[in-house]
């Protein structure tokens, strides 16, 4: 007997089938960041997180990328400024993030950089989306100090709802703990966003800072090698002089005895 699928079953089959004919845009006409106020913390956070987790294949850090969270619906999309996925299926490059193609994995950490045109949506519509799809931590940073106060807000998802993460003022540094990243999210003087590794006791560096530190380390190693070479040359010269003096003394003693 042939059983015709009911309309309900047809809908279910369509929902479970990843239709390859549907197009999912991976870019739009919007700027990466509206101004330098947004651009600098965004690019710093992405680069610093990529470097920090570079040894882990299961951590994916990216920014300003489309995250599609409902199969066959290209309108169910959100674009976090910065996001991190823990337990990712590799940290290779992607055009977009599709939760259903990534083992139903969504971002665990999201950071939005506020601007005059986005901060209200970040605090309402985007916040609701992130809670609905299960983003564990949602952070918002205001680089201008004109959108909200305090300028750093962190929230943790508890039973489907966001609850505040304590942000303290530590000698002028706003600091909140990200359990997802095992890092501190901080705002230093002049509203500078920085990430801090409490385990290593180090600030995560800007790209140029990391390059400068690497260059300084290389120069220090080169100077150490040169110092060792100079020390060895001086020791060899001294040993050669000692042998020469010993030879002269031996010749003189031989002459005296004859």
Keyword list:
single chain, elongated, 2 domains, 5 helices, 258 residues, six-stranded mixed sheet, five-stranded antiparallel sheet
Q: Please state the structural category.
A: alpha+beta
Q: Give the terminus-to-terminus CA distance.
A: 128 Å
If strands are numbered along the chain, what order do they take across the biggest sheet? 1-4-6-7-8-9
Number of helical runs? 5
The portion of residues forming beta strands comes to 15-25%
Q: Which H/E pattern describes the elements?
A: HHEEEEEEHHEEEEEEEEH
Radius of gyration: 30 Å
The CATH topology label of the largest domain is tt1808, chain A
Question: What does it look like?
Answer:
The protein has 258 residues and is α+β, with helices and mostly antiparallel strands. It has helices at residues 7-16, 36-52, 119-123, 125-133, 207-257; strands at residues 59-63, 67-68, 77-78, 82-86, 97-98, 109-113, 137-141, 152-158, 161-165, 167-170, 173-178, 183-188, 192-197, 202-203. It folds into 2 domains: 22-204, tt1808, chain A, CATH 3.90.1570; 207-239. A 6-stranded mixed sheet has the order 1-4-6-7-8-9, with helices on both faces. The protein has a 5-stranded antiparallel sheet with strand order 10-11-12-13-14, with helices on one face. The chain has a 3-stranded mixed sheet with strand order 3-2-5, with no helix packed on it. The model is unreliable at 1-14 (pLDDT under 50).
């Amino acid at each position: 007997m042939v059983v015709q699928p009911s309309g309900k079953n047809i809908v279910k089959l369509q929902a479970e089938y990843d239709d390859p004919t549907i197009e999912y845009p991976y870019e739009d006409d919007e700027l990466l960041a509206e101004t330098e106020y947004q651009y600098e913390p965004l690019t710093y956070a992405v680069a610093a997180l990529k470097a920090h987790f570079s040894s882990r294949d299961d951590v994916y850090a990216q920014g300003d990328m489309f995250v599609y969270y409902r199969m066959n619906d290209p309108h169910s999309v959100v674009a976090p400024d910065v996001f991190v996925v823990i337990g990712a299926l590799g940290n290779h490059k992607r055009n977009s993030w599709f939760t259903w193609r990534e083992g139903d994995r969504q971002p665990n950490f999201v950071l939005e950089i506020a601007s005059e045109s986005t901060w209200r949506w970040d605090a309402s519509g985007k916040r609701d989306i992130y809670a609905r799809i299960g983003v564990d931590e949602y952070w918002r940073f205001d680089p201008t100090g004109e959108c909200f106060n305090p300028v750093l807000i962190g929230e943790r998802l508890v039973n489907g709802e966001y609850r505040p993460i304590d942000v303290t003022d530590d000698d002028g540094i706003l600091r909140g703990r990200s359990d997802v990243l095992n890092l501190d999210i901080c705002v230093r003087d002049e509203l500078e966003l920085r990430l801090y590794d409490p385990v290593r006791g180090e600030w995560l560096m800007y790209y140029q800072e990391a390059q400068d530190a690497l260059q300084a380390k290389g120069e220090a190693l080169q100077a150490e090698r040169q110092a060792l070479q100079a020390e060895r040359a001086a020791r060899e010269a001294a040993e050669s002089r000692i042998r020469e003096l010993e030879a002269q003394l031996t010749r003189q003693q031989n002459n005296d005895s004859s």
